Amino acid sequence: MPAVLNTLLIYARDPAASAEFYHRHFGFVSSGEMVEGLIELSAPEGGANILIHQAAKSVKLGQAGVKLMFSVPDVDGFKAQCARQGLEFGATHQANGYAFANAKDPDGNSVSISSRAYRATAAAG
């Protein structure tokens, strides 16, 4: 039986602030209500959903072991949109026919925007 990755759980010091971050900058939909210790965010365009969980004081946040990568067709356009909302990404990097840029969420977790998923479409068109 295959396993399907459809949800990412993120530990946060302030779950409401983290839920707002992913809603505002990446378009996730949520009631913002904490249910069973979790705030659930849905990806309206498909892809994995996010659960935000209150982090215990002992949890180390902002580890470099995991990075959330969001696919966008226009990295610089998305960066400009986020900048108007108060989220600054680092430099745009070019790699093998696609671009990417990095930022951090409110808890120091790494997030990236990348056009990698769109490079085959662009090359075929």
UniProtKB/TrEMBL annotation:
The lineage of its organism: Bacteria, Pseudomonadati, Pseudomonadota, Betaproteobacteria, Burkholderiales. It comes from Herbaspirillum frisingense. PROSITE patterns: VOC. Pfam families: Glyoxalase (PF00903). Residues 4-116 form the VOC domain. InterPro entries: Glyas_Bleomycin-R_OHBP_Dase, Glyas_Fos-R_dOase_dom, VOC_core. This is VOC domain-containing protein.
